[in-house]
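Q: Convert this sequence to structure tokens.
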Amino acid sequence: MAQQVSIGERVKLARMSAGLNQRQLGKEMGMSAMAISKYETGEVVPNSRVLIQLSKTLHVPLDFFFRSIEVTLSEPQYRCRKALKKSEEKMILSKTQDWLERYLEVELITSESIALDLPSGEPCTVSSLLEVEDAAQYVRDYWNLGRDPIENVMDVLEQHGIKVGLVEASEAFDALTFYYDDRTPVIVINSVMSGDRQRFNLAHELGHLLLRCEGDIDPEKAMQRFAGAFLVPKAMAFMELGEQRNTLDLNELQVLKQKYGMSMAAWIFRATDLGILAPETAQRYWMYFKKKGYHKEEPFEPVPAEKPTHMVLLTLRAFSEKHITMSRLKELLGNDREQLSELRLLGSA
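A:
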């Protein structure tokens, strides 16, 4: 939920987003951890000089400390390669909170939000992997995605009311999913990963939002199957690979990787799931991939990373309609210099 917040709570949020504890921030500011604690609890209100110093030290604009909305996150579900340290988990959640607050502010300024439009009902209740295949196709049909490769998975999810954000974190973190205000689904993806990993993680998290697993089906296996089927429908996999194969060429897999935005490894899994490739043949590929180190980094060109565009477009609309200033635009976009540079905004400030 959203509520009014104090400057002290903003200081705490910015500190955690920066991955610092009170002692570390105090050291960089030239003051004690106790002084930082008093700012954060509201016992002492930082003056303008301290706020400017905090802004520079924590790399946030001054407007951040006066933002009108605060978001309380529900318990998130993580997708991680290994357990996160508590400090990193706090940093990820703080960055997520900051991004979502900016997103909601932009929607408030523009009076624009996308209505949630998620498929539901019997097709999304599954008790076997074959039913997962049908559910993935049902979702694509419900959203009129056809059979062709999805150009931008992030945009597809946002066009149907799922908020998608990026945070920078270690390679241990892949994604997290939670609900804001008990009804709006939010997916946050690690920005420091290749496009094929982003897309597969998004499809995997979409499965968690939509599928209801019953019986003995393993939920994680169901989500993996859903992700592959959502990105590459069964009919297209058969069209691209044929009904049965004894071998798959790496160059062939690379072409398919770029075309569908799904990794070579995921294509091998997909071919095995559909019976195109025999399990023993797939096992030989896994052994070869491990020997070459391809299980960590695949050969050839990576799939370009995706970026969600809806929030950026809303912010630019607000600026174009003169509802916000340039400094406010930068604050709402997170003061991301790379993004601002791409939009050619820094030179016109």
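The chain has a mean pLDDT of 89.
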